[in-house]
Design goal:
With 164 residues, the chain is of the alpha+beta class. The protein is built from seven helices and seven strands. A seven-stranded mixed sheet has the order 1-2-3-4-5-7-6, with helices on both faces. The longest helix has 11 residues. The model has no long low-confidence stretch (mean pLDDT 97). The structure holds coenzyme A. The site of coenzyme A (COA) has 18 residues, from strand 4, helix 3 and helix 4.
């Protein structure tokens, strides 16, 4: 079941993100890795800045989360994390399809250039990487990320983005 997460889910969202983000350990540049990967303050800030989290619940337990954020003329998919033992069961695909139905705007997704599995996941769902020049412009326009993160990230867009 896919459901909107509320304030009561904060601790669960925090746990799922920091468990699933373990996939980045030793993969993304060492200076970008920290533990916990996302601390409570950062998660709180993301929510207060408009990231709406949706969750996938199975037998009463939240096993995956994905955020959506409407920024200017686009919609961003943010913080897609499926609990490690629950991966590769189609949960991420279901959450992504659901969130795509929640907007009529072009969708952009940013992820680490080294997270090849995540890039493949989005490409399988029809997203395409934007050019390196476009990536910098988009990350500066729609996200608030440090310059170093821009160097080490990629941005993918849906077909609406590429036809707009
Ligand atoms: C990226 C991520 C969100 C994808 O979620 P997921 O639930 O594992 O994704 P899905 O199960 O829908 O799809 C992943 C794979 O499982 C396969 N799959 C889908 N449904 C399946 C099913 N019912 N049975 C078996 N395999 C299935 C898909 O074909 C896909 O295969 P591929 O990798 O060869 O393309 C998840 O792997 C994750 O949390 N990773 C760590 C954090 C991360 O990288 N997040 C992205 C940040 S932007």
């Amino acid at each position: 079941m896919i459901r909107r997460c509320g304030p009561e889910d904060f601790v669960l969202i925090y746990r799922i993100i920091n468990d699933a983000a373990g996939a980045y350990r030793g993969v993304i540049p060492a200076d970008r890795w920290k533990e916990p990967y996302m601390d409570e303050e950062e998660l709180r800030r993301e929510i207060s800045e408009g990231v709406l989290f949706w969750g996938y619940e199975e037998r009463g337990e939240l096993v995956g989360v994905m955020g959506i954020q409407h920024v200017k003329d686009v919609t961003l998919i943010r913080h897609a994390y499926i609990s490690t033992p629950q991966r590769n069961r189609g949960i991420g695909s279901q959450l992504l399809s659901f969130l795509r139905g929640e907007t009529t705007h072009p969708i952009l997704i940013g992820t680490w250039a080294d997270a090849v599995w995540a890039i493949r996941f989005y490409e399988k769902h029809g997203f395409r990487q934007v050019s390196p020049e476009e990536k910098g412009r988009l990350l500066r326009t729609y996200w608030s990320v440090p310059e170093r993160q821009i160097e080490t990230s990629v941005v993918l867009g849906d077909s609406k983005w590429f036809s707009s």
